Amino acid sequence: MFSKILPKEEVGSITNHQQLFARYILAVLIDLTVLNLIDEYWDYVSIDSFSISLLTAILLASLLKLTLFIEHHMAVYFKSKTSLGAKVMRFFSTWLVVFIAKLLILEAINYAFGDRVLFTGPIHGLVSFIVVVTAILISEQIVLRTYKSMA
Prior knowledge:
Layout (H helix, E strand, L loop, with lengths): L1 H4 L2 H4 L4 H26 L3 E3 L2 H30 L4 H30 L3 E3 L6 H24 L2
Antiparallel strand pairs: 1-2
Helix pairs in contact: 3-4, 3-6, 4-5
């Protein structure tokens, strides 16, 4: 059915830059959607306007991708080693990078937007921020798995 809509030969080839651009835009749109839904339905997250939520989504997507990049490279380094100590260090370094990155991302959002973006609640808003990031990552995985299942 879909082959009649857009035959493969008309699609053309997609460069790596185009694919990276599409993935980044999709990540920003997912982040934007999740941020705005949580802002609308949960009192612990407050964003002043759509424009601020868009800028927050761009910052959040950029910093999350940077975090995953760093975490992946550390995991590859420790994965090449076979000792028990290397496995423990892989787990510990992954946890440390992810935990510290969340604190740094929260601080970057606070620095960039101040009172225009607020995460409140337990542990000075850290819990609500972690919930938002978790919802974003789950949403990205759902979209990615759906996309891959269409191949």
